[in-house]
Amino acid sequence: MLNPIDLAFKKAKKENRPALLTFTVAGDSSKNQSLIILNAISKYVDILELGIPHNTPVADGSQIQTSSYRAIKNGIKIEDIFWIVKKYKKNKNPKPIILMGYYNMIFQYGEKKFLKKCKKVGVNGLIVVDLPWPENKSFTKECKKKSIYLIQLLSPTTSKERLNKIIKDSHAMNYFISMLSTTGGKLKVSPKKIMTNYFKIKKINPKKNVVIGFGITEKSIKSLKKADGLVVGSAICKEISLSILKGQNPVTNVANLVKKLKYKIL
Amino acid sequence: MKLKKGIQVIDQGNKLGFWGGKFGGNFVPETLKKPIEDLEILFNKLKKDKKFISERDKYFKNWIGVPTRFIKLENLTKHVGGAQIWSKVVSDANGGAHKIYNATVHCLLAKRSGKKIICGDTGAGYAGKMLSMAAKKFGLKCKIFMGAKDIERQQPNVKAMKKNGAEVIPVYSGSQTLVDAVSECMRFWVANCDTTAMCVGSTVGPAVFVRICGWSTSQISRELKVQLIDEFGTVPKKLKLYNCVGGGSSSFGFWNEFMDYDKKQCEFIGVEAGGPTKSKKHAAPLTYGSKIGILHGAAQYVNQNFDGQIEETESISAGLDYPGISPLHCFLKDTKRARYTAASDEEALSAYKLVTKYEKLRPSLEPSHAFSVAIREAKKMSKSTIVVVNSCGDAYKDKKILRNRLGRKYA
Prior knowledge:
Chain A is α/β, with parallel strands linked by helices.
């Protein structure tokens, strides 16, 4: 059976567009609200990334940090995150879910126990920001046993030799970091350059889906639409922060933003 | 888990950078893999390069001013009435603390790698001050990340950094102390690793930073060994080396040369920050049995909650106010080569009072923690026992806290 992640890419390709991936932080701004947001954006999105908030995130920019600290402050625990996924999967047309986080949270929970729980609630993929290859080799195998994809990150600093090795060991989806930046940085490289790098990676194994993330906003998304998939994260987290600041409803505002993002890549 | 003899501890990690198979490593975002690998290759090459070592020694001698003094604290010894209490006055070093060794080496490495900018974190402000000094000396642009709370409580060092031309970037996230400064500095490096070198201010972070820092501060014990032999004709039969431990850079450097001696002859005592007596918070993960976790790229004992969120610490001493601890110290603890204990804020303050009353020495709040335990334990020891405390920082930076807590007389 195909992983629902593969099906999502297949569907997008059929429609001649990149898959749209969103990132929100679990528990931002509360356990219930983050579930409502997932349900509200679900129909526009192909794959949902859900962040496990951590309080010493070494790769996140200010927008995702703000969302994470807000979620932690409001009491989110790892069990709540599983609850959110489980509830969301009751949606009539649930989309694949990728949990994204830092290794310490998984390490404390216990790798095997964590994967078992992921499988049980319906998680389809994982991104562990600070568990790079080859450190993640054994974890990758454990994921495979549970039919959960461990998504490898690839960066502009990753050497050709390393790219080959990582992609060889990877599952069917990889994540290309568009530029040297933490999440949500201003796009400091031209989309053309990003696409050139992207196609170099794609060529290594054209069968594996590669998404692009970091610095993608409403403005830049269209120029990257030849990729297999595009991830928007910080722009959504920022929308939640702004809505709270203005006393508006984050759910409607985020749903509107995601709708617009989808429209741009059709 | 075993400590090997005849091999430097910094080189006892496995292929993936783990000491004892489980401490350290490289838990970093993919973007940093390449710059870390580059730094590893450079460092492994240069640490064997005689020309580089003589260059390092030249700057250590002429600019840092080594060796620092090794003195007997006669009056304190008399007052305590037990072991002989000595001090290695590392605060004699240019800038007033041991952080200068690591900062100098990182700037030399940055120059070799052709980087024009260097960024660093700081807690007490010493790592930042020294990095700003070294950066100025070697013509590098310097950015220092410092928690907003630490900026407030360690003003003299902040002023020094600015005077040296460094940009001091306040960090407002989390507890606004060292842990957040290190995170922010790493984030900056993630985004700028093509042009910028990073200096981690202690023996923490991804494995190569732990190694570089330990290699640099080992200067302290190299000097001490010579000074002990000068003084006693040999390394004393009963030697106790007391050092405060935050990240663990000064203590590791203070002990390294004595690693292969039997612990019955050379005992290492690391003193962590126990925090205020009335508070449950502390910065003593080894003493209070914290679990292994991952912080700033390395597996280590770290204060954390059930879920794995890093816990806030509390200590009067900004330099020790860190929830984790060097993988090297985790390794020394589990192999039982070193013993770890903690001193509270109040105990450190009374030790400061006592030392300054009897001696012409003004240890900062960090080494005052070590003095506290050394004095307590020295009482019960024989006169032939040699206790040495590393006075690794000067109290000038603490004058505001000392004035508030002990009165104007002590500031």
